[in-house]
Amino acid sequence: SLVNRASCNRLLGHKRDAMKDLEAAHEISPGEQEIVSLYMTALLQEGEVDKALSLFSSCAAASTDVHLVVLYGTGLFQRGDAQDLNLAASATAECLDRLSSVDTNDAIELAVLHLQVLAAREDMNGVGEALEELCSKTKSASLNLLLRAHKAALVGSFEEGVSTLKRLEEADSSSWPRSLHRHIPLLYERLGAHTEAVRSWRGLLEANRLTTDTLTLLRVARQVDDDDTILTICEAIRDNEVIDQRLVHLELEVLI
């Protein structure tokens, strides 16, 4: 099917072909949730925010689908003007109100986005109030810590944030999907703890694969002059028969 082919093309890095397949699939079935979700994701990743947001209204069940609301709110957050932030705050709040629990991957992403939107509106009291309500909706100690770490990062509490992340790394998060584990190194970086971010990324990623996360790890490693990490990962990726000019230039910077 077009959707399956698009997914394969995206995994292979053939973004243009994947986008063509998703566009064609959407023309055939404009209200299909899976297609709308994949198409919105691809558009947002390519910076086509306006087009992504226009798809949201094409799906009848969009406002009740947690993942689609996350994509819609993310697009509004990326566009970032006052009206968009108000719409994002309303959409995420209404969707969260319908949930009895935030213990799923999509629900946590929605909760984090809601906190980020409130912070972008400079509603720090709202961030604190929302955090406590969200924490009351999870039975997971590790997810509770993750939400509190996000709040600490948003309000600029460095020591609290790093301490919370350390506790989170010691907690049982073995059942988490990889997408949630990514929050930890990203939060370390946001808190300015770049060495901890590098350590966390290295424990999460396969060193020989070139992904967006690998590039993030290399960028953070460069910030703290962690030449060993940079050279080790660049060599592993090259040994996997992947040659990327960005990595070649980075290696040369380190070696010269």
What are its keywords?
single chain, 0% strand, 256 residues, 16 helices, mainly alpha, globular
Give me the secondary-structure topology.
Elements: H1 2-11, H2 15-28, H3 33-45, H4 49-56, H5 66-79, H6 82-97, H7 105-120, H8 124-135, H9 141-155, H10 158-170, H11 178-181, H12 183-190, H13 194-204, H14 212-223, H15 227-239, H16 245-255
Helicity level: over 70%
Uncertain ranges:
none
* SS field, number of helical segments: 16
> Can you tell me the overall shape?
globular
* Strand content range: under 5%
- How far the N terminus sits from the C terminus, by CA atoms, comes to 49 Å
The number of distinct β-strands equals 0
SSE-based structural type: mainly alpha
- Describe the biggest sheet? none
What sequence of helices (H) and strands (E) makes up the elements? HHHHHHHHHHHHHHHH
Q: Could you tell me the radius of gyration in angstroms? A: 20 Å
Average pLDDT metric: 90
In short:
With 256 residues, this protein is mainly α.
Written overview of the protein:
- It is a single chain.
- It is built from 16 helices and no strands.
- It is an all-alpha fold and 256 residues long.
- Helix 1 (2-11) packs antiparallel against helix 2 (15-28), helix 2 (15-28) packs antiparallel against helix 3 (33-45) and helix 4 (49-56) runs antiparallel to helix 5 (66-79).
- The chain is globular, with a radius of gyration of 20 Å.
